[in-house]
Amino acid sequence: MSHNQTDTIDAVVTWVDGNDPIHQKKRINALRESKLISTDHLTTGEQKTRFIDNGELKFCITSIRKFAPWVRYIYLVTDNQTPDFLEEEFIDKYKVNVVDHKEIFQSYESALPTFNSRTIETAIWRIPGLAEKFIYFNDDFVLTSPLQKDHFFNNGNVVIRGRLRRMGSYGKWRMHLNHIYSKTIKKFLGITYSMHLLYQIRSAQLAGFDNKYYYVPHVPHPVRKSTIATFFEENPDLFEKNIQYKFRDTDQFSAMYLAYHLEIANKNAELVSPDKALMINGEMDFSGMLNRKIKAIKDEKNAFLCIQGMEKVNSKQKKHLMRTLSALTEMD
């Protein structure tokens, strides 16, 4: 891969502070209203754990600046919120622009307030001033080793990390079983469950795939703004339908995975294995496994880290992880 690319690339991070009383009140009101008009919400889409702020955002932002210093701006998309650490000095140093939901849903204000990452992702390409090439981060994504532009965009192509899989079928009966399974493991094991594969499959189908799809794990997503903007300009009904859900719904698709499959269909994608990706899941990682993963972070064996269920990690290991990430992402 060439390391001489000079194209402007931005980063987009979506974040919410679910501990904010104002946000909690809006969420409760929206839940009450939504339950009157919809009966097919994902169980996990309404869970409080989806909105808990465990402090990962700061590591996300600092890691981008340290390990991908070529990123022009970091756009932080929020619902009229600002994290405590985001003071003027920090904003200037890390080149952060805060974008409110009202900006990306301009002319579509009926979609607000929304508590649905799929809905928000559908509109992030509408950020004013956003570069043609951008990398989408969840707030629990952290870079853990130096990266070049060609890790994400190379020779005019979008670099997609994943593997080819055969499409599964999600009929009414399977959907019903998934709802039961989700409720059961949440009740007895405390593990949240979402239909991540369904979103990817549905997104691939919208791009014209009918047999196989390209499965992508939890990693930062490189996106070409024009690819998704053009699709929605040609299919405004799909845009409007996908943003109407205030909580995750099984009728939705993922705009990010749609963009991936559009690039693949147009032969504008470079497909590579999902190497260097690590996930920490506080609901599922036992103590020994978590310690091994923290050591791998220290040794910079991975490039991409996703942290889920931080609130489930015991206090000792949580402090260990926080110290490790603080040291790793500290700027010189």
TrEMBL record:
One Pfam family, short name: Stealth_CR2
Segments forming domain Stealth protein CR1 conserved region: 9-33
Transmembrane domains' residue ranges: none
UniProt keyword terms in alphabetical order: Exopolysaccharide synthesis, Transferase
Keyword Transferase: yes
Biological process terms in GO annotation: polysaccharide biosynthetic process
Xref: InterPro entries: Stealth, Stealth_CR1, Stealth_CR2
Family recorded in the similarity comment: Belongs to the stealth family.
Name assigned to this protein: Capsular biosynthesis protein
The organism's taxonomic lineage, starting at the top: Bacteria, Pseudomonadati, Balneolota, Balneolia, Balneolales
